[in-house]
Amino acid sequence: MNDRDDRMTTPWGEHVLTRFPEDPRDRLRAWDASDEYLLGHLAEREVPLSGTVVVVGDRWGALVTALAPHRPVQVTDSHLAQEATRANLERAGVEPGSVRLLTTQDPPPDRIDVLLVRVPKSLALLEDQLLRLAPALHGGTVVVGTGMVKEIHTSTLRLFERIVGPTRTSQAVKKARLIFAEPDLALKRPVNPWPLAYPLPDDVGPLAGRTVVNHAGVFCADRLDIGTRLFLGHLPGVGARRVVDLGCGNGVVGTAVALADPGADVLFTDESFQAVASARATYRANGAAGKAEFRVGDGLAGVPDASVDLVLNNPPFHSHRATTDATAWRMFTGARRVLRPGGELWVVGNRHLGYHVKLRRLFGNSRLVAGNPKFVVLKAVRK
Q1: What are φ and ψ of residue 37, in 5° steps?
Q2: Which of 33, 63, 268, 304 is 20 to 30 A from 113, alpha carbon to alpha carbon?
Q3: Is the N-terminal amide bond of 195 cis, ω within 30° of 0?
Q4: pLDDT tens column, 19-70
Q5: Would you place residue 2 in the very low, low, confident or very high pLDDT band (cuts 50, 70, 90)?
Q6: Structural domain count of the chain
Q7: For 17, phi and psi rounded to 5 degrees?
Q8: Quick one: 37 and 104 in the same domain?
């Protein structure tokens, strides 16, 4: 039973907010103390909101829903956050189009009068977004960041200082903190290093020595993580017609399949706009000649039942900073739905997560393909 209180009280009224996809068993709220702290600060200090207000990294739309009367612009890397925002705005009775919903891959506004930044987990994503948005700041722009104390580090403040200007922080309230940065128009900003490209090692199968491209914020953006490295060394043989790289990240797994079997039809899908842009760039950088589709979305939503031969998956076990297996479970159930009889789901994950138990419960089978002290590669077959 869900005993979560979905009502957030703000200086502009009370709003019922939920995450996406909505799950009555989910005990996590769609906002936290850092959202409340920021909104309270804007009201208390009477920050002018009549100009262009840009909100970056709004987790589930709490900030733009509260600020909707001021027609803010949201910039997010998350498809799920964008869908949650749409639902929360509709629930609040906000007129469609009052809030502009942009992705981290879209051109930012030309002028920003108020910039509100929900500090992301990834310092690289924060760097990329500040560098993309900084040219739109002017001397009167109000820049306020927010996050829980554990999310704001010295490196976070240095980044604001290096890209925006003089930076200071507030006192902590309910374990949340604000960041205040004053735009320095004379500041010489660094060149944006993202996206980043690097060669892969020589022991990863079809991708040996080839290039991977990562946009900021993608998991292990500057190196090949050890779980994916294990996966690449034990991918199934060629022959599958329709393949899905589910939660594709930078696309190395799906690209490896495409290079090994040019006849494969590969769908790269992820809920991160940065990830899908990375997967597309990685695929193109390696000259894969097969058929490929790149889709930002909610897992396997929109993929027809029983239409796929092989699903490859390295599921995340975090939702922002919350540890949860809900995403993995939804990916596994989605894979079972779209696989044809005899189709296979291949999963790599941390050994301690016990994915074999979930796969046996769902598929009735699970086989260990490979493993090391930290990771396992598992296979489940759709009966």
Answers
A1: -60, -45
A2: 33
A3: yes
A4: 999 887 777 899 999 999 999 999 999 999 999 999 999 999 999 999 999 9
A5: low
A6: 2
A7: -125, 140
A8: yes
Distance of alpha carbon 66 from the chain centroid: 22
Return the ∠ at Cα 330 (arms to 363 and 317), rounded to 5°: 110
CA 45 → CA 39, 41, 49, 142, 363, distances in Å? 10, 6, 11, 11, 56
Token code pair at residue 113? 């009068």
Q: With contact defined as beta carbons under 8 Å apart, do 316 and 323 qualify?
A: no
Among 181, 205, 228, give the residue marking a domain's end. 181
In this structure, the answer to whether residues 216 and 365 fall within a common structural domain is: yes
Amino acid at 43: A
Give the chain's end-to-end CA distance (angstroms, integer): 32
- Token pair recorded at residue 163: 């890209």
CATH number at residue 245: 3.40.50.150
Q: What percent of the chain has pLDDT over 70?
A: 97
Domain boundary among the residues 181, 213, 234 is at 181
pLDDT at 324: 58
Can you read off the two tokens belonging to residue 325? 């297996």
Q: Which long-range contacts (CB under 8 A, 24 or more apart) does 233-238 make?
A: 233/203, 233/204, 233/205, 233/370, 234/369, 234/370, 234/377, 235/205, 235/260, 235/312, 235/346, 236/310, 236/344, 236/346, 236/379, 238/263, 238/264
- Same-domain status, 222 and 149: no
Domain assignment of residue 226, yes or no: yes
Q: What is the CA radius of gyration of the chain?
A: 22
In this structure, are residues 227 and 255 in contact, taking their beta carbons and an 8 Å threshold?
no
Range of the domain at 167: 7-181
Report which secondary-structure segment, H or E, holds 213: strand 211-214
User: Looking at the structure, do residues 174 and 213 belong to the same domain, yes or no?
Assistant: no
**What's the Cα-to-Cα distance from 4 to each of 7, 8, 197, 371, rounded to whole Å?**
9, 11, 43, 39
Cα atoms found within 13 Å of the Cα of residue 112, Cβ hemisphere only: 27
Stronger pLDDT, 336 or 324, i.e. the higher one: 336
Helix (H) or strand (E) segment spanning residue 62 = helix 62-66
Structure token pair of residue 305 = 């039942």
Question: Helix 355-363 to helix 326-338 angle, to the nearest 10 degrees?
Answer: 30
Rounded to whole angstroms, the Cα distance separating 75 from 111 reads: 14
Q: Do both 210 and 259 map to the same domain?
A: yes
Nearest to 41 by CA among 246, 180, 234: 180
pTM score, two decimals?
Answer: 0.95
